Amino acid sequence: MENRKKQIIDLAIKLVQQKGYVGFSYDDISKQLGVTKASIHYHFEKKEDLGVAITERITNRLQNSLLSIKDSSVSAEEKLKQFIQQQAERFEFTEICPISSLQTDYESLPYIVQNKIKEVSKLEISILKEIVAEAQNERSINDSEDLQFLAVTILSSIKGALLYRRVLGEDVLVDVLNQLDRFLRKS
Description:
Blueprint: H1 2-19, H2 26-33, H3 37-43, H4 47-70, H5 76-89, H6 98-104, H7 111-137, H8 147-168, H9 173-184
Helix pairs in contact: 1-4, 1-6, 2-3, 4-5, 4-7, 5-7, 7-8, 8-9
């Protein structure tokens, strides 16, 4: 039973990445999993319940990502690179970050899902701010910039590159990561 619930959430996240929250339905899930819509409703009565489960899964992934990076014995600069690389590698060529997708659909989301995506967005920024602060303290990256500004700039650059990759079919992500590295270096 828990396995089916996990399958539904996994597929829903993929559909959010490909179509957006408003672009998929329980019918999409039932067809791809080969189950009835009633089976999906058994686990998630309403789509907003599934939306909450999606954001909770994303939150757990972010927290696990942070823990694995924090527990790493590498330099803060390397931790920053690991975080950026982990975020970039999670998505196939036609997918975007599920957080970005949910942010795009924000005005159309149920209120409870809006609150959850706001929480996960703040978490994502705070994680990156923590890693950037450590790198600044080690003086491995430019320490003259505001932490919030740097975190948002890094996240926006990565997520923007994923969008361009999806549309243009070119992997601009490598170029963006190289440019970020130059931007973050001390002058």
